[in-house]
Amino acid sequence: DQQVKQNSPSLSVQEGRISILNCDYTNSMFDYFLWYKKYPAEGPTFLISISSIKDKNEDGRFTVFLNKSAKHLSLHIVPSQPGDSAVYFCAAIEETSYDKVIFGPGTSLSVIP
Amino acid sequence: DSGVTQTPKHLITATGQRVTLRCSPRSGDLSVYWYQQSLDQGLQFLIQYYNGEERAKGNILERFSAQQFPDLHSELNLSSLELGDSALYFCASTRGGGDYGYTFGSGTRLTVV
Questions:
Q1: Pairing relation of β-strands B108-112 and B10-13?
Q2: pLDDT class for B40, splitting at 50, 70, 90?
């Protein structure tokens, strides 16, 4: 049973527009969420995170929104750039689980020049 | 270079064989995590070690085992290999103790033929 879901396997966006990547989770014990970005032939790299006590965290062009009641989070990229084309993994942590991070299946983002 | 080193980068082996994947964590990191990424799948957590001791177990098959050595490098042993074990295997490290900033290696691509 997948605890972290990313229902869109892929997304295409025009350069300069907003990219919105969505993530849903089922475990109400999750209290920390992360987004990772992965290029082909490389390992995932940490992008941005949010604690469950917040509903928004911003870092440059990247903003993560958390809606705890809906068990939903989203990553906004504004403006999107061709270099943002990658697979984005949503991930969650249940703090009592010794830092074990649960990853979603990923969304492949293509930013079209 | 993320600081996490995985060897080998590629491995092709036959069914029924045994292989060992190696991971050297980032300097100072005590926790090592192993993840499996199969085709079209997200990152599946296999196992975590912290300072030489097993800390958490995920969906790791009995045919798979791992250990972390005193110098903190880790090895993932996969035996009686099946075609379905073909995947990317990632190692990640953190300092532990609530540091959620995973640093991933670039992975080992295992192909079982």
A1: parallel
A2: low
Token code pair at residue B84: 């379905």
CB-based contacts of A80: which residues, under 8 Å, 6+ apart?
Answer: A13, A14, A15, A16, A17, A18, A19, A109, A111
> Can you tell me whether residue B95 is helix, strand or coil?
coil
On whether any CB of chain A is under 8 Å from the CB of B31, the answer is yes
The Cα A64–Cα A87 span in angstroms is 16
Tokens of A13: 């966006």
* Among B31, B102, B106, beta carbon nearest to A41: B106
The radius of gyration computed from the CA coordinates of chain A, to the nearest angstrom, equals: 13
Q: What is the pLDDT of residue A40?
A: 85
Strand partners, A73: A23, A66
CB contact under 8 A, A43 and B104: yes
pLDDT recorded at residue A76: 98
In 3D space, the residue among A21, A41, A11 whose CA is nearest the CA of residue A91 turns out to be A21
Kindly determine whether residue B105 and residue A93, on different chains, have CB atoms separated by under 8 Å.
Answer: no
Q: Are A33 and A56 in contact (CB under 8 A)?
A: no
Buried b / exposed e over B18-47, threshold 16 CB at 10 Å, is ebebebbbbeebbbbbbbbbeeeebbbbbb
Say whether B42 and A46 touch across the interface (CB within 8 A).
Answer: no
